[in-house]
Amino acid sequence: MAQAITAEHVAIARPVCEPPPIPRPRRAATAGDLLEVGTRLGPWRIGEALGRGGMAAVYAAVHASFGEQLAIKVAHRSLLGQQYTPEMFLREARVASMVPHPGVVQMLSSGTQGDRPYILMEKLSGATVGKKLAKHALPRAEAIDILLELCDILRATHKAGVVHRDLKLDNVFVVDAPYDGDRRVKLLDWGVAYVEHEPDPFRGLIAGTLTYVAPEQIRGEVLTGACDVYSLAVIAFQLLCGRPPFAASSDLKLVHMHLRTPPPRPRTAWPQAPEALDELLYAMLAKHPKQRPSLDEVIRVLEEARDEIAPVRRRAVTAVPVFPPVDVLGRAALPLPVPFGAAWIGLAITVAAFASLLSALP
After folding, report:
1. Which of 166, 189, 228, 278 does the annotation list as catalytic?
2. Residue 100 exposed, middle or buried by CB count within 10 Å (0-12, 13-18, 19+)
3. How many domains would you assign to the chain?
4. 166 in catalytic set
């Protein structure tokens, strides 16, 4: 679904005042930032482009000697400078490795060739939720499954003292097949994550994407996991209601809405939404982080909503004879399914014994 805003860059300079003006970045990525197929970075040969963001691009990569296939994320050269240094770019690999969860894209190594920093990571097969929604809406039960997996990843993230800070549809990747039991979701792009008890390299910036940023990100407050809960609610709105909760014709209007406009009720776009889910999403978009529910509460309500939307079908009971054959001692010779229970077995044996007695009469 097309978004009404124009800003999809990673960081926007702002003063501390409320509400802040939203100036454009002084520089933008250029065509010269993209690498051509066949370019070498160390022992790695660059393949097709897998994705491009405001600060970097991701490519398929093959090891020139061993043929190993990975993905490589390369910073846009034109954006590197005093405000965005190679060290800030390479920080992503360290932060992602702090979160011990299979839903975090695996960072394998990092390096710099010349003035071009890069990160090697696992190569995924599938598509982001953003690309999936661009083709067709997802069934709501599947959407809730994705949200539940995101909650599990975020729970591990916050436990590690990390706030992702840039949750959005294009950073949620659904792999083609389960890679760990039933898990299918990977959370991408940890480049602007906030780490507790560490200097924030993005202090003084709105690090994130305007459609998803929490009010405290705009106000420049100390961040907690509630920041990700707010962004998760925006994703949930897009998946379940077909649109984000806030959209505007300009960046400044969108910032005003995040700061002051009461969030809409999900039932305005989805009248059949379960009442508890309607209340949950509304609460997740509270302007003050302490008023938002915990991830445990989010998980509980999402699980209940999933069961209400798509209840688990009971397995069909295997058909069995009304009067099962009996052995020489009058016991049932066929095992009966659990639903029949001991009472049915006893009745069957009694009937069989009675039939045998009748056949013995003259």
Report:
1. 166
2. exposed
3. 3
4. yes
